[in-house]
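To whoever picks this up:

The nightly regression suite flagged Bulb-type lectin domain-containing protein as changed. Nothing in the input moved, so I suspect the structure step. Input below, exactly as stored in the fixture:
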Amino acid sequence: MEGKQVTHLASNVHMAATSSLLLSSLLALLLLQPSPSTANEGNVLLTGDTLPTNGELSNSKAVFVIQNDCNLVLYNNGKGFASKTYEAGVNCTLSLNDRGQLLIKSSNGTLVWFTPRGPIGKYAAVLRPDGQVGIFGPLLWSTPEVWAMKRVVDPVKFSTAPSDKNLLFSSQLLNEGEKLQTRDYNFMVGKDCELALAKATGNSLLWGSRTKLKGDHCYVRLNYRGQLAVLNDFNNKLWVSGPPKQEGVHVLVLQINGAAAIYGPERWTTAAL
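Regenerated output under the current build:
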């Protein structure tokens, strides 16, 4: 009888240890998962987001991946980019901090590689439609408005129309009826001249420019001073996001959390390396 009790006790201990191991493994996997914005917007990494080992940003022209050998690599049709951190860490992750720095960290917390530091703020690392990666920020404006300082960079020309459905770069336009979109949200200028942020289903209005019926054939443009403006057919400004900032390339990101946010200027890019 005593032997059976010992066997039963050992079995319970084994089951408890196995359950604990499974729980630990599950927690480890959860901790390695990217934040919601990273998981759902595959071309943007925002401040606070993390890409796990083998996590990537991607679009139709490029893949930017933190490989399982700890090397951060950009695969595109051009010269690409590599952080040259091959086997410098184990189970490395890539994150973007509030100084606008991309950070590669090993699983033990060791900092392996980083980009130059900017002022404190919110930033966006964007896989651009030309296949290069750029870090934009700090945050200049969002719905609702938020302001921050920035510095000059050389302008980069993109096509007039947005190439990625959730991004609008300096010099690009949204014409009447066109929109930026994520899975759950739309940001568009309607035929009534209103620039609106709404839910994709049900068209529930979350924010508007209050330019309804104030013009005809209106369009939206993001300039090199970080200003988003609604203009009418005579190119008169009906609404502007805020005062002009220093010249540089900026980006408006329609984020998975429903915010339309302007970041800039571009502070670092793989294209310059």
